[in-house]
Amino acid sequence: MKATIDWTGKASFRATSGSGHQVQMDGPPDHGGEDGGPRPMEMLLMGLGGCSSFDVMSILQKSRQDVTACHAELEAERADAVPAVFTKIHLHFVITGHNLKENMVKRAVSLSAEKYCSASIMLEQAGVEITHSHEILEG
């Protein structure tokens, strides 16, 4: 897996993935940025959410659950000192579908957290406390 980062002026950078996709990152105005994209630490948090959401949906689809939407809400706390690393992250999944089985949704979230989500497991090994919750909506 490869990626490149190119400075595009002030506190702005363009990230390009090995598969050719691009994301613009930018710093806040008080750090020379123009607020034209997410911060690098926000990208890390979004990457965790994407990784875990991908796993949850894959597991639910393989379990033949009729999912119509998957929404993940992430909330993170960072250390007060430099480096301001993540100390705690909570992922809350809102899974919408028809006749979803509670045990299948719970299993999908657990398997992602404990076995499949590389981002989550890597951050936990670095000392980040990661918790998960979920809710099911009919529809």
UniProtKB/TrEMBL annotation:
Protein name: Redox protein
Organism listed in the record: Marinobacter zhanjiangensis
Alphabetical list of InterPro entries matching this protein: KH_dom-like_a/b, OsmC/Ohr_fam, OsmC/Ohrsf
Matching Gene3D superfamilies: 2.20.25.10, 3.30.300.20
Ranges of Basic and acidic residues composition bias in the record: 28-37
Region: Disordered, residue numbers: 13-39
Superkingdom of source: Bacteria
